[in-house]
Protein backbone atom coordinates (compact mmCIF):
# COMPACT_ATOMS: atom_id res chain seq x y z
CA UNK A 1 0.00 0.00 0.00
CA UNK A 2 1.24 3.47 -0.82
CA UNK A 3 1.96 5.82 2.03
CA UNK A 4 -0.78 8.39 2.77
CA UNK A 5 1.89 10.76 4.10
CA UNK A 6 2.23 13.92 1.99
CA UNK A 7 5.65 14.12 0.41
CA UNK A 8 7.88 16.14 -1.84
CA UNK A 9 9.76 14.64 -4.75
CA UNK A 10 12.81 15.86 -6.58
CA UNK A 11 12.78 15.23 -10.31
CA UNK A 12 16.43 15.20 -11.31
CA UNK A 13 15.63 14.83 -15.00
CA UNK A 14 12.99 17.58 -14.96
CA UNK A 15 10.77 15.43 -17.12
CA UNK A 16 7.05 16.00 -17.26
CA UNK A 17 6.35 12.31 -16.78
CA UNK A 18 8.31 12.21 -13.51
CA UNK A 19 6.42 15.24 -12.25
CA UNK A 20 3.07 13.63 -13.09
CA UNK A 21 4.10 10.31 -11.50
CA UNK A 22 5.16 12.05 -8.30
CA UNK A 23 1.91 13.99 -8.11
CA UNK A 24 -0.11 10.83 -8.74
CA UNK A 25 1.73 9.16 -5.87
CA UNK A 26 0.70 11.98 -3.53
CA UNK A 27 3.49 14.55 -3.69
CA UNK A 28 2.46 18.07 -2.78
CA UNK A 29 5.49 19.56 -4.50
CA UNK A 30 8.01 18.44 -7.11
CA UNK A 31 11.40 20.09 -7.45
CA UNK A 32 12.33 20.47 -11.09
CA UNK A 33 16.09 20.62 -10.81
CA UNK A 34 18.49 23.07 -12.42
CA UNK A 35 16.99 23.39 -15.89
CA UNK A 36 15.77 26.91 -15.18
CA UNK A 37 19.33 27.94 -14.27
CA UNK A 38 20.63 26.68 -17.60
CA UNK A 39 17.96 28.75 -19.34
CA UNK A 40 18.78 31.78 -17.23
CA UNK A 41 22.47 31.57 -18.10
CA UNK A 42 21.77 30.94 -21.78
CA UNK A 43 19.28 33.67 -22.55
CA UNK A 44 17.89 35.22 -19.38
CA UNK A 45 14.31 35.47 -18.24
CA UNK A 46 12.77 34.75 -21.64
CA UNK A 47 14.52 31.38 -21.81
CA UNK A 48 13.43 30.47 -18.27
CA UNK A 49 9.83 31.35 -19.11
CA UNK A 50 10.03 29.28 -22.30
CA UNK A 51 11.39 26.28 -20.41
CA UNK A 52 8.68 26.50 -17.76
CA UNK A 53 6.03 26.82 -20.51
CA UNK A 54 7.35 23.64 -22.13
CA UNK A 55 7.31 21.81 -18.80
CA UNK A 56 3.79 22.99 -18.04
CA UNK A 57 2.43 22.04 -21.48
CA UNK A 58 3.96 18.57 -21.13
CA UNK A 59 2.34 18.13 -17.72
CA UNK A 60 -1.00 19.32 -19.12
CA UNK A 61 -0.72 16.85 -22.02
CA UNK A 62 0.08 13.96 -19.69
CA UNK A 63 -2.82 14.81 -17.37
CA UNK A 64 -5.23 15.13 -20.31
CA UNK A 65 -3.89 11.86 -21.75
CA UNK A 66 -4.85 10.15 -18.50
CA UNK A 67 -8.38 11.48 -18.89
CA UNK A 68 -8.19 14.14 -16.20
CA UNK A 69 -8.67 17.88 -16.34
CA UNK A 70 -6.46 18.78 -13.37
CA UNK A 71 -3.38 17.52 -11.53
CA UNK A 72 -5.64 17.33 -8.46
CA UNK A 73 -7.49 14.43 -10.10
CA UNK A 74 -4.37 12.23 -10.31
CA UNK A 75 -4.30 9.07 -8.18
CA UNK A 76 -1.95 6.10 -7.82
CA UNK A 77 -4.52 4.19 -9.89
CA UNK A 78 -3.36 6.18 -12.91
CA UNK A 79 0.04 4.46 -12.76
CA UNK A 80 1.09 0.94 -13.68
CA UNK A 81 2.97 -0.27 -10.60
CA UNK A 82 4.40 -3.79 -10.89
CA UNK A 83 3.44 -6.23 -8.12
CA UNK A 84 5.95 -6.12 -5.29
CA UNK A 85 7.46 -2.83 -6.47
CA UNK A 86 6.04 -0.87 -3.55
CA UNK A 87 7.57 -2.32 -0.42
CA UNK A 88 6.14 0.31 1.89
CA UNK A 89 7.80 2.40 4.54
CA UNK A 90 8.30 -0.51 6.96
CA UNK A 91 10.68 -2.21 4.52
CA UNK A 92 12.57 1.03 4.00
CA UNK A 93 12.90 1.58 7.76
CA UNK A 94 14.17 -1.99 8.23
CA UNK A 95 16.71 -1.56 5.44
CA UNK A 96 18.03 1.63 7.03
CA UNK A 97 18.16 0.03 10.47
CA UNK A 98 20.18 -2.93 9.17
CA UNK A 99 22.54 -0.88 7.01
CA UNK A 100 26.11 -0.44 8.28
CA UNK A 101 26.85 2.94 9.80
CA UNK A 102 29.82 4.62 8.09
CA UNK A 103 32.74 5.74 10.24
CA UNK A 104 31.54 4.05 13.41
Give an account of the 3D structure.
By secondary structure, the protein is mainly alpha-helical. The protein is 48% helix and 9% strand. The protein has one domain (7-98). A two-stranded parallel ribbon has the order 1-2. It starts with 6 loop residues before the first strand and ends in a 6-residue tail after the last helix.
Instruction: List low-pLDDT spans.
Output: none
Question: How would a crystallographer describe the biggest sheet?
Answer: 2 strands, parallel
Please report the distance between the alpha carbons of the first and last residues.
35 Å
Number of domains: 1
Mean pLDDT: 76
Oligomer: single chain
What key attributes describe this structure?
single chain; 104 residues; mainly alpha; two-stranded parallel sheet; 4 helices; 2 strands; 48% helix; elongated
Give the secondary structure arrangement, pairings included.
Blueprint: E1 7-10, H1 16-24, E2 27-31, H2 35-43, H3 45-65, H4 88-98
Parallel strand pairs: 1-2
Helix pairs in contact: 1-3, 2-3
Summarize the structure.
Helix content is 48%, strand content 9%.
